[in-house]
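[09:14] KT: can someone run the structure on this one? pasting the chain below
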Amino acid sequence: MDQMTPRPAATIVVIREQNQKLEILMLRRSAQAAAASGAHVFPGGGVDEVDAEVVRRGLVAGLDAASAGQRLELGSGALAYYCAALRELFEEAGLLIALNAAGDLVEVSDVQLVAWRAELVTAKVGWPEFLEREGLRLALGEMHYLAHWVTPENRSRRFDTRFFLAVAPVGQVARADGHEVTEHLWTTASAALHRLETAQWTMLVPTVHTLRRLAAMGSVDEALAHATTSRVQRTQPREVEHEGRIVVVLPGEPGYDD
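[09:31] RB: done, structure tokens below
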């Protein structure tokens, strides 16, 4: 079977500090979703042409193409990954990380955010046109590059996904879109991992490993410092047979190089 080329994708891990604990926004995928159905995930999805269009129209701030390319180790197209992560965050969870015409992080009512997302869902306005109409630019400077995961080679659906980290916008309330995402939850990394271990949740391997990294951190500042100073390496798991069943192994784990 020919190897499927992985589709570019972006994921964003949104964090906040609540009751002196680091909390993470988790979404549950619809049971009817084409990918990761029923799983608990971070907001994210495929990089689309509309994300490149946002870049072409200059509807971004806080990061230039050269710096983005250097961070993601890409010759071109790096800014589209950042844009895709923020677009998916608004579509799936209703959180908008953007700057207004004055260059400040946007502060709008919950009612306005719901109305804006409804316009986009019903295609009354396109994403770039919406940003232009409201005088907004995506706040790429608020994002920190966190991880790079590629789906194992033998899968029929493959993604080349860049993970980003960002702090939840002040005053905004997360809401699942009710279509691709059926519910949302703010939780600590440890609590999320406990739900996995007790079979309450299912999660993808990259999600689990990201949560394990964050479980060791107790504050937003600590998580941001980690993302800022850590070098991101491309990670591509492999599926291997072990004791009669297929298991996912990571580089360095037993069986990966067999």
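[09:33] KT: thanks! The CA atoms of residues 40 and 154 lie 23 Å apart.
[09:34] RB: yep, looked fine to me
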